[in-house]
Design brief:
The protein is built from 8 helices and 5 strands; from the N terminus they run βαβαβααβααβαα. It has a 5-stranded parallel β-sheet with strand order 3-2-1-4-5, sandwiched between helices.
């Protein structure tokens, strides 16, 4: 029987590829999706479809971060649009959700421990990303060290704890090529921070622009419908 691994599955292209990587690595993936009150809720339905696509157990947890605020994804703050690559490369954008990956990894770690699993996958990326501090390798290393100190399985040494970040050193183009080779159906992913009322990606937010650039460089057609597509 394959060992279990918890995979944080947002509904986006990166997390779908991370789920495929867990399958590739021989794990029985258990997909965890967090409904944190995000304005781009189209991704939640996509996460369910992705889990079914890879025949993974799927758990949806509710952790409403809207009362905390501080982000364009959870509060009444405008999502940046039309920014250049150089603009995205400087500073931490308003789409950063305070401590989001720390919260998500903690929930994933809790579920993993209850499953008797020491492996957690997260699709963070430190190259083509929008300046989020909780996507960096040093952050992941620090969380992994903390996890070994903060859990029964870590303290007793009965289960090794590993935070897997298979995409962390890849460009978006490389991620899309990898996902394509592993059978990811990118039509079942959604990356937009500000989708239209009919569910189309806006084509102007940072996430859309990074995604479109990555698909173009990968030489793969992005199957997602966009309201504006450059």
């Amino acid at each position: 029987m394959a060992k279990k691994a918890v995979v944080l599955l947002s509904g986006g292209a990166d997390s779908a590829t991370a789920l495929a990587c867990a399958r590739r690595d021989g794990f029985d993936p258990c997909a965890l999706t967090i409904d944190y009150g995000q304005r781009h809720r189209a991704e939640l339905a996509m996460a369910e479809k992705q889990a079914a696509h890879f025949d993974a157990k799927h758990l949806l947890l509710f952790a409403d971060l809207r009362p905390i605020g501080g982000s364009a994804l959870t509060a009444d703050i405008d999502v940046p649009e039309g920014r250049s690559v150089s603009e995205m490369a400087h500073g931490i954008p308003v789409t950063y959700v305070p401590a989001r990956n720390t919260i998500f990894l903690s929930l994933a770690l809790g579920w993993a421990e209850s499953l008797g699993a020491g492996d957690v996958y997260i699709g963070v990326n430190a190259l083509d990303y929008s300046g989020y501090p909780d996507c960096r390798p040093e952050y992941i290393a620090a969380f992994e060290k903390m996890a070994r100190l903060a859990t029964k399985m870590g303290v007793e040494g009965k289960q090794a704890i590993k935070i897997h970040t298979p995409l962390i050193g890849m460009t978006k183009a490389e991620i899309f090529r990898l996902g394509d080779s592993l059978g990811v159906d990118f039509s079942l992913t959604h990356s937009c921070y500000s989708p239209t009322q009919d569910g189309k990606a806006c084509g102007r937010c940072d996430s859309c622009l990074i995604r479109l650039k990555g698909f173009n460089e990968a030489g793969i057609e992005d199957p997602l419908p966009y309201a504006v597509r450059k």
